[in-house]
Design a protein that fits this description.
The complex is a heterodimer of chains A (about 270) and B (about 240).
Chain A lengths: L9 E2 L8 E12 L2 E12 L3 E5 L6 H8 L9 E9 L2 E2 L7 H7 E4 L10 H11 L5 H14 L3 H4 L12 H13 L5 E5 L7 H14 L4 E5 L3 H7 L2 E6 L2 E7 H6 L4 H7 L5
Parallel strand pairs in A: 1-11, 4-9, 4-10, 7-8, 8-9
Antiparallel strand pairs in A: 2-3, 2-5, 5-6, 10-11
Helix pairs in contact in A: 3-4, 3-6, 4-6, 6-7
Chain B lengths: L2 H34 L5 H5 L12 H32 L4 H14 L3 H15 L6 H25 L3 H9 L4 H29 L3 H4 L30
The chains are: A alpha/beta (about 270), B mainly alpha (about 240).
The structure holds adenosine-5'-diphosphate and magnesium ion.
Chain lengths: ~270, ~240
C-alpha cells in the first residue's frame, strides 16, 4: 500500500442530462486549526444512492454533516465553499436552516429515537412544521412507516414507547421520522454499523426502495454494503475526495492506486 | 504477624468504628421517637402555640414552614430552570461561562448563616421588607439557587447529544428541541433535584432567623385577605 496521497484524482462530472439535487463546490471544513475537509467538489444525482467510503478519520462524517449544516452546531467548526441545493447556495447566513433541514433529512450512526411513542416520534416534527390535521398526521405516520418497512411490525402498537423497539427497528423508525417530512435528500451516517446482519439487510432493502423517491447519500465502512446498494461511490482520503465514479467502476476498475488498495482491503 | 492476621485486625477495627457510629445514631433516633411520638396528636398539630403556659400546638410553625417552602420554590424554580437551560444548551464554552460556573459553585458552598446575614442587610434593612415571610423566602432562594441550578443543569446534560442532533436534523430550532425533546426527557431528574432542594429548604433555620424573624404572630386561619397582618397569606408578616 502507498502511504502517499495520489496527486492525481479521478472525479466524474454528472452527465449534462443528469438531474442533480445537491452538490458542493470547493468545500472546506475546519475544526479550529485542523482542516478536516480540504476542498471537496462533488455532485449527487437525483434518485440515486451515493456511498462515501474511506478510512476512518478521513472526514466522511464531517462532509456529510456539512451538507445539512449540522456542523453549525459545533462551536469550533467553520465551513467555507458552496453547497448547492437545487442550484442555490445554502451555505450562507441568510439560509433558513430549519426549513432546509426539512428538505435534507439525516439519519445518524446510533439510532436516536425520542423517548416518546412511535406515533409521536414521527408526528412530532410534522406538528412543529405546521401539520395540525389529525387525519393528515395519521396518514403521514402510516406512509412513512410503510416506506421504512416498519409498518407491519408496529401498526398495532403505535403508542408504545419507541425505546422498546429493537435496534434495527429503532433505526428504521429514525428513517421513517426523517422521510415523514418529505425531504428530497436523505443523508445517512453509517446507519447500519450498530446493527446486526439481519437488521442491516432490512435497512439496506429499505434504502433501495426509498431511492425511487429520494436522493440518498450514505457513509459506510462496509465495502459490500457500498457495492450492493449504491450507484455512485466517492472515496475519501485525508480530507480529499480521491476518486468518484459509478460504484461498479470504483470497485472493479478503480483509476487510482489508493482506491484500489482500500476497496481490496490492503489498507489501514 | 502475617498479612492475613493484620488484615483481620484491620477489618475488625473498621467494623467496630462503623458499629459505634451506627449505635450513636440509632440511640439518638430511638430517644427522639420514644419521647416524641406519644406527644404527637392531631390537636398538637392543629392548634397554635401558647406563650407563658404549657400545652399548645405547632400549627403556625408548620404552616409557615410550608408557606416559605412553596414561596421559595415558586421564586427559585423558574430562575434556576432558565439559568440551567442557558448553561447547558446555549452557553458557549469560554472564559465567561467558566467564570459563571465557578461563581455558582462558590455560592453553593456559602454557609447559610452568611446567606441569612446578607438577607438581613439587604432585604430586611436596605429594601425595608422587615422581618417577613418574603425576606425569608428570598434568602432561601439565594441559598437554594446555586444547587438547584447545578442539579437541573446536570440532568439536562445527562440527555445524550444525539437527542439534540435528532431534533435539529428534523428542522426544529434549538429552542423547540430544548423545550419539546430535552426538557421532557430530563424531567425525572429535574423533579428529583427539586424534591431534594425542597428538603434542604424545609430544614433550613439559620438563614431564616435573620430574615423571617424569630417569633410568629398569631394567625387567623379564617382571614384570607393577603394584606391583613393576621392573615396566613400575608407575605410581609414575620414568621
Ligand atoms: N467535533 C469535532 N471537533 C473537532 N475535530 C473533529 C470533530 N469531529 C471530527 N473531527 C476531526 O475531523 C477529522 C475527520 O473526522 P470524521 O469526519 O469524523 O471522519 P470519518 O467520519 O471519516 O471517520 C478527524 O481528524 C477528527 O478528529
Ligand atoms: Mg464517521
Amino acid at each position: 500500500m502507498s502511504e502517499k496521497v495520489d496527486l492525481e484524482t479521478h472525479i466524474i462530472k454528472m452527465k449534462p442530462d443528469a438531474s442533480v439535487d445537491l452538490s458542493t463546490k470547493d468545500l472546506h471544513v475546519w475544526y479550529g486549526q485542523n482542516e478536516a475537509i480540504k476542498g471537496v467538489t462533488l455532485e449527487f444525482e437525483e434518485n440515486k444512492i451515493t456511498s462515501l467510503i474511506g478510512p476512518s478519520g478521513c472526514g466522511k462524517s464531517t462532509y456529510l454533516r456539512s451538507l445539512n449544516r449540522m456542523n453549525d452546531e459545533i462551536q469550533i467548526a467553520r465551513v467555507t465553499g458552496e453547497i448547492l441545493y437545487h442550484g442555490k447556495d445554502i451555505n450562507t447566513p441568510e439560509t433558513d436552516v430549519y426549513e432546509m433541514r426539512k428538505n435534507i433529512g439525516m439519519v445518524f450512526q446510533r439510532p436516536n429515537p425520542f423517548s416518546k411513542s412511535i406515533y409521536d416520534n414521527i408526528s412530532f416534527a410534522l406538528k412543529r412544521h405546521g401539520v395540525k390535521d389529525k387525519n393528515a398526521l395519521d396518514e403521514a405516520v402510516e406512509t412513512s412507516l410503510k416506506q421504512a418497512a416498519l409498518w407491519e411490525q408496529v401498526k398495532d402498537d403505535l403508542h408504545k414507547n419507541a425505546l422498546a423497539l429493537s435496534g434495527g427497528q429503532q433505526q428504521r423508525l429514525c428513517i421513517a421520522r426523517a422521510i415523514a417530512l418529505k425531504p428530497d435528500v436523505l443523508l445517512l451516517d453509517e446507519p447500519a454499523s450498530a446493527l446486526d446482519p439481519i437488521s442491516t439487510s432490512q435497512v439496506e432493502d429499505t434504502l433501495l426502495q426509498l431511492k425511487e423517491k429520494y436522493s440518498i447519500i450514505i457513509v459506510t465502512h462496509n465495502m459490500q454494503q457500498a457495492s450492493r446498494i449504491s450507484d455512485y461511490t466517492a472515496f475519501f482520503y485525508l480530507g480529499n475526495v480521491i476518486e468518484y465514479d459509478e460504484t461498479r467502476k470504483v470497485f472493479t476498475r478503480p483509476k487510482i492506486q489508493s482506491t484500489e488498495d482500500y476497496v481490496s482491503g490492503n489498507f489501514g | 504477624m502475617n498479612a492475613k492476621k493484620i488484615d483481620k485486625i484491620a477489618v475488625g477495627f473498621l467494623y467496630a468504628m462503623a458499629g459505634v457510629i451506627v449505635l450513636i445514631l440509632f440511640s439518638l433516633l430511638a430517644f427522639i421517637l420514644w419521647r416524641g411520638i406519644p406527644q404527637i396528636s392531631w390537636e398538637f398539630l392543629t392548634t397554635p402555640s401558647k406563650s407563658f403556659q404549657t400545652g399548645g400546638g405547632i400549627v403556625i410553625q408548620l404552616f409557615n414552614s410550608f408557606y416559605l417552602l412553596i414561596l421559595t420554590m415558586l421564586i427559585s424554580t423558574p430562575l434556576s430552570l432558565g439559568a440551567a437551560i442557558y448553561l447547558s444548551e446555549y452557553a458557549k464554552k469560554n472564559l465567561l461561562t467558566d467564570f459563571i460556573r465557578t461563581i455558582i459553585e462558590v455560592l453553593s458552598s456559602l454557609p447559610s448563616v452568611v446567606v441569612g446575614l446578607f438577607g438581613f442587610l439587604v432585604f430586611v434593612l436596605q429594601w425595608g421588607l422587615g422581618f417577613s415571610i418574603l425576606s425569608g423566602a428570598m434568602a432561601l432562594t439565594l441559598f437554594n439557587l446555586p444547587l438547584l441550578t447545578r442539579t437541573i443543569e446536570d440532568s439536562l446534560r445527562a440527555i445524550p447529544l444525539t437527542q439534540r442532533e435528532a431534533g435539529l436534523a428534523l428542522g426544529l430550532s434549538r429552542w423547540e428541541t430544548v423545550n419539546l425533546v430535552i426538557l421532557p426527557a430530563a424531567l425525572p431528574g429535574i423533579l428529583t433535584g427539586m424534591i431534594l432542594a425542597a428538603g434542604r429548604i424545609f430544614g433550613e433555620a439559620a438563614a431564616l432567623i435573620y430574615t423571617a424573624g424569630q417569633s410568629a404572630p398569631a394567625l387567623d386561619f379564617t382571614n384570607w385577605n393577603p394584606l391583613s397582618i393576621s392573615s396566613p397569606l400575608n407575605v410581609m408578616r414575620p414568621a
